[in-house]
Amino acid sequence: MAQTRIGILTGGGDCPGLNAVIRAVVKSATRLGWETFGINHGFEGLLEPVSCTRLDHREMGALLTAGGTVLGTTNRGRFTAKVGHGNVARVPDEILDQAKRNFILLGLRALVCVGGDGSLTIAQQLFEHGIPLVGVPKTIDNDLEATVFTFGFDSAVACATDALDRLHTTAASHNRVMVLEVMGRYAGWIAAHAGIAGGGDIILIPEIPFTYEAINRKIAEREQMGRLFTLVVVAEGARPKGGDFVTQGVQQSDREARLGGIGSQVAAEIQRRTGKETRVVVLGHLQRGGGPTCFDRLLCTRFGAKAVQLIKEEQYGYMVAHVPPDTKAVPITQAIGRLRTVPPEGDLVHTGRMLGMSFGDEE
Ligand code: F6P
After folding, report:
1. Where exactly are the structural domains of the chain?
2. Which of residues 257 and 209 earns the better pLDDT score?
3. Do the beta carbons of residue 310 and residue 134 sit within 8 Å?
4. N or C: which end of the chain has fewer CB within 10 A?
């Protein structure tokens, strides 16, 4: 009887921990006597010219801590399913057909699709097209429904918190306002977590539209207390009340909008209104680079092992999810329907407010 063979691919933007998931899948599959094929360049590797690599469990050791993905990934190409803010496009039938044909030709029993909102939306379409698969939730944005944490998020928060710690000392030395712009797309999880963990003074997130009056008030309040510097954390998707998202570069119709630039606008406006010397740092892709934190390593390992277990149990169309204290299986459709955003009245924001942090609103 032929050996069972499964495939794994990483889709969308990269993030710390992708390799750790690959390692966990390969090692768990090997213990079941299965072989694993890595599909290269995201879903694209399933299309002609097909590109895949047999993954040897003896070569997985270094992957636990390595950043990026050894399989490569892409958030554009023939499989685009997410365009613009929340719009879903249908992957053309001929592309789905071709992927299914190659899946069969490769002799795969099932596919592990590691990805965020966009990639899991594609995975769901492939599943409905007849490819047995399971999903693993990846994204630094932590904006997927049905899981409390996606992997990569904790690593991004660690990076942003470290940046805030560094900005803290230079801001205090110069009595400046320091503005840190972080990623997160339409969700403020990175900004809120790093802002609170890093002792930020003002945290601006997409879920709570801000006013410059409220920001000024907070800075003035600090000055009155003798605190002559201020740390501002701005999520790239934050926007002033009644304003729109700030985007950068030429926007392409076949992919999600590229957010960025709100940090500079906020910094310029603070300097204009308060006269205080203000500097801005855009953390950008540093948040996606490098290896995973211990938390993410563990999460990736649990996710990878659980994904293989789901395949063993033929629970296809499901995504592994972290619902503390357990790792569970949830239908992929539950994860991709809408984005999970920071509840403005939730515990996280409440914690910040209790400590006197401002979210740029009237409160
Ligand atoms: O979704 C992850 C993410 O890093 C977002 O936080 C950010 O808006 C976007 O991807 C950046 O994408 P790109 O790598 O295409 O610049």
Report:
1. 5-151+290-334, 156-288+343-354
2. 209
3. yes
4. N
DSSP 235: E
The CATH architecture one would assign to domain 5-151+290-334 is: 3-Layer(aba) Sandwich (3.40)
Q: Is 31 exposed, middle or buried (0-12, 13-18, 19+ CB in 10 A)?
A: exposed
> Does the annotation count 162 as an active-site position?
no
Q: What is the pLDDT of residues 226-245, one digit of tens each?
A: 999 999 999 999 999 999 99
CB 181 within 8 A of CB 282: yes
d(CA 253, CA 153): 27
Hey, what are 28's tokens? 């768990």
Among protein residues, the one whose CA lies closest to atom 16 of ligand 1: 258
Q: What is the 3-state secondary structure (H, E, C) of 262-291?
A: HHHHHHHHHHHHHCCCEEEEECHHHHCCCC
Q: Is 187 in the pocket of ligand 1 (CB under 6 A)?
A: no
Q: Is 275 exposed, middle or buried (0-12, 13-18, 19+ CB in 10 A)?
A: exposed
Task: Tell me if the domain spanning 156-288+343-354 has CATH number 2.60.120.620.
Answer: no
Determine the distance separating the centroid of ligand 1 and the alpha carbon of 75, expressed in angstroms.
Answer: 9
What is the best residue among 141, 143, 285 to mutate for testing ligand 1's pocket, by most ligand atoms within 8 Å of CB?
141
Active-site hit among 14, 117, 141, 296: 141
288 ligand 1 Cβ < 6 A: yes
- The phi, psi pair for 157, rounded to 5°, reads -65, -40
User: Identical fold at 5-151+290-334 and 156-288+343-354?
Assistant: yes
Sole residue written with tokens 């999880």: 189
